[in-house]
Amino acid sequence: MSAHTAQTELKLIGKLILEGELCCESGLHIGAGKGSLEIGGADNPVVKDSHGRPYVPGSTLRGRIRALLEQATGAAVPSELVYISKRKGQEVRIHQSDRPDDEICLLFGRNPGRMEKVGGGDLDGNIATPARLSVFDAPLVIESITPQMRESLDDELTEVKSENAIDRITSQANPRTLERVPAGARFKIRMVLDVLCAEDEVLAGLLVQGLRLLEDDTLGGGGSRGSGRVRFDGLKLVWRGRDYYASGASEREIASGADTAGLQGKLSEIGELVAA
Predict the structure, then answer these.
(1) In angstroms, how far apart are the furthest CA atoms of the chain?
(2) What confidence score (pLDDT) does residue 6 get?
(3) Out of 63-67, 84-88, 196-200, which region has the weakest mean confidence (pLDDT)?
(4) pLDDT reading at 29 higher than 90
(5) Residue 15 in 3-state DSSP?
(6) Pick from 264, 252, 254, 246: which is nearest to 208 by CA?
């Protein structure tokens, strides 16, 4: 449980910079929408940057981590779920509360204003808190798509997975194709966690918990059909205190070359740095 209260004062103490790689254990599909459909292309293309290279949007990675943490902490209950979109067939519900010790809202931020609760009624939020966590777009490590992999790909950097949906009455097949980044591909990740008060120390542990949850879940589309299994590797975590920005002081390395389990074992050092 967080020690944050309504009286907690916010002032930058430092930033935790997490960098590393997201590695695809199976094909990864993060959809671009059908607006980019080309003749002869897959029904469901992956999102690509202006150079035509697949990437993992920061919003996708951040949103998936948030959803898993809401489930794991018991925050995904109707009394604390609100609609951010009620478009038919595209409803989006997220957790939000006005509790000052709500770690989900502290990590991901909270906007004020009236929002409709999933369980009925309105949430008249009057507390705004800044998001501590920033997650950046993760570009593809081009070298991770080896020449041997390219020989079997349907495109220069991606594969196409064919699937069939079967009508339960007529047994008619409805074929569809899913573009995926192949297993073995790697993406460079970067996340920044702002520490705005001593009580924010616990949020680093919450973030790492989310990374570990994602490794045993899926990212992107088609997860229940074999896509989207990922892991994090080569993680580097550094601390940059306020004096790093004010006077050019050195950063402090907390972990290097770690996986999520190794990173979790290094979090005890953060308390000393925050208190210094």
Answers:
(1) 72
(2) 78
(3) 84-88
(4) yes
(5) strand
(6) 264
Domain count of the fold of the chain? 1
Q: Has residue 8 been placed in a domain? A: no
pLDDT digit string, tens, across residues 118-143: 777 777 667 778 999 999 999 999 99
Cα(267)–Cα(135) distance, integer angstroms: 19
Domain that holds residue 177: 14-275
Map 186-228 to HEC letters.
EEEEEEEEEECCHHHHHHHHHHHHHHHHHHCCCCCCCHHHCCC
- Confirm whether 194 is domain-assigned: yes
Percent of the chain whose pLDDT exceeds 70: 93
* Residue 101 is assigned to a structural domain of this protein: yes
The answer to the question of residue 2 being in a domain is no
Q: Rounded to whole angstroms, how far apart are CA atoms 41 and 144? A: 23
pTM: 0.90
Question: And the tokens for 122?
Answer: 């309105």
Q: What is the CA radius of gyration of the chain?
A: 21
